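Re: that backbone. Tokens:
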């Protein structure tokens, strides 16, 4: 049986970060990845000759962001696209009324003001909420106090519902009242014209990564742990870092022996795993505003397909990205690609009757992927922000967890995955790891390889 200092399970952003930091310290590290690629939920499809990010797309807020610092240090190009946090204003957004007609400037200003006012009331309701209250409960209380007309209430209600779906991949009634407490965005948001998975792939260069190797069991022993795979192999290590998505942990596809302590098992059970699917449609020509970041249908016109993001800058071809999240995201996974495109295109043509047939399409089904079983974590009713951090462990000083679901400050982001991988490495090492030095070591290794 091969023995390692540390085995890392999963080669997504958190896993490769942990493995790189431990390897740089001279530790013998093995990474076991069930997929046939590095990146996890950072998945870039380049088959069309340009990148399409089927998983993570954005850095949500670059101010005071160590993730942004790493991207800059590695000279990875980005494009500013500050709408990925489901904003109501702040960038050019084409809003459409309940019947699909374009909103004029006055109506748009009123709409933005309504959401801002409702959000102020919502903050108060969240602060006064009780245990067991859902995000639906507190939004309804805020709207009851708003004094808006019934139509304006309906529009803001839909906005709140869609915001939860896009941010959490969940139905608003399944999210805890505090589920969007960490939703603040500081600074611009950016996307990646070369594909987001460049980042984990460059971090992972030179690591011992075994692809197509699903882990089935982790057994803690007096000397560390033994990890078994679906191929029948067993590996021994002094420590193990588990970085698989929360959905995989909830599905129980990895057996832990002995069973995980309640301090870790409890958060796995209480936290929710959302579904957030992407539909990219490419068109022969642009039929929306040249400077528009988003096309957004309010009210009935946008009940399902409500927001269309212009990501044409990546390929240079007119491209819109829309999302199916929460209950819609789960339902659409059972439809064919053609059925999904027809339904989404029908909604888009309520806004633009002359919209052409798409020339290309990309569709995800993250909830049906056995190696993610969902898209990212959220604060389900009965859970708390504390659960995210408690999930990190360790168990018996041997078994650590990392990944976006283990980082309470900003879960459901690549930043959370990166920071949690950094934390896991520091805990295993018992020493701090400087992030600037981490980036420089990656660059130095790349220069050495190139020469």
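Recovered sequence:
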């Amino acid at each position: 049986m091969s023995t390692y200092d540390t085995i890392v399970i999963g080669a997504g952003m958190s896993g490769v970060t942990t493995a790189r930091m431990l390897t740089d310290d001279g530790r013998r590290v093995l990474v076991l990845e069930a997929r046939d690629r590095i990146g996890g939920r950072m998945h870039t499809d380049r088959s069309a000759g340009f990148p399409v990010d089927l998983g993570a797309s954005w850095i949500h807020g670059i101010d005071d962001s160590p993730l942004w610092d790493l991207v800059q240090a590695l000279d990875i190009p980005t494009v500013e696209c500050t709408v990925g946090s489901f904003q109501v204003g702040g960038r050019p957004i084409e809003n459409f009324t309940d019947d699909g007609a374009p909103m004029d400037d006055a109506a748009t200003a009123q709409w933005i003001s309504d959401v801002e006012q409702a959000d102020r009331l919502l903050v108060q309701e969240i602060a006064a909420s009780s245990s067991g209250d859902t995000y639906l409960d507190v939004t309804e209380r805020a709207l009851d106090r708003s004094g808006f007309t019934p139509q304006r209430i309906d529009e803001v209600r839909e906005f709140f519902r869609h915001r939860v779906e896009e941010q959490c991949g969940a139905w608003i009634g399944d999210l805890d009242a505090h589920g969007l407490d960490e939703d603040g965005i500081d600074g611009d948001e950016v996307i990646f014209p070369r594909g987001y998975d460049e980042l984990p792939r460059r971090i992972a260069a030179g690591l011992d990564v075994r692809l197509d190797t699903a882990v089935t069991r982790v057994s803690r022993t007096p000397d560390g742990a033994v990890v078994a795979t679906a191929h029948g192999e067993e590996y021994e290590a002094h420590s193990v870092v588990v970085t698989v998505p929360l959905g995989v942990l909830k599905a129980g596809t990895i057996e832990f022996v002995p069973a995980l302590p309640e301090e870790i098992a409890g958060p796995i059970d209480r936290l929710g795993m959302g579904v957030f699917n992407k539909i990219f449609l490419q068109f022969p020509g642009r039929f929306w505003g040249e400077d528009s970041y988003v096309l957004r249908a309010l009210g009935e016109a946008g009940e399902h397909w409500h927001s269309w993001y212009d990501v044409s800058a990546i390929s240079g071809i007119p491209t819109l990205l829309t999302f199916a999240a929460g209950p819609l995201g789960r339902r659409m996974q059972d439809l064919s690609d053609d059925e999904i495109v027809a339904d989404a295109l029908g909604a888009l043509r309520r806004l633009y009757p002359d919209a052409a047939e798409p020339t290309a399409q990309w569709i995800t089904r993250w909830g049906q992927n056995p190696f993610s079983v969902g898209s990212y974590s959220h604060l389900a009713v009965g859970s708390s922000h504390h659960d995210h951090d408690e999930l990190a462990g360790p168990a018996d000083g041997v078994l650590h967890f990392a990944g976006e679901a283990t980082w309470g400050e900003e879960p459901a982001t690549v930043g959370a995955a990166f920071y949690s991988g950094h934390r896991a490495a520091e805990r295993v090492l018992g020493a701090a790891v400087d992030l600037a030095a981490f980036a420089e070591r990656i660059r130095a290794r790349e220069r050495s390889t190139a020469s």
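Residues 2-43+196-270+383-450 form a domain with the FAD/NAD(P)-binding domain fold (CATH 3.50.50.60). DSSP finds 14 helices and 20 strands in the chain.
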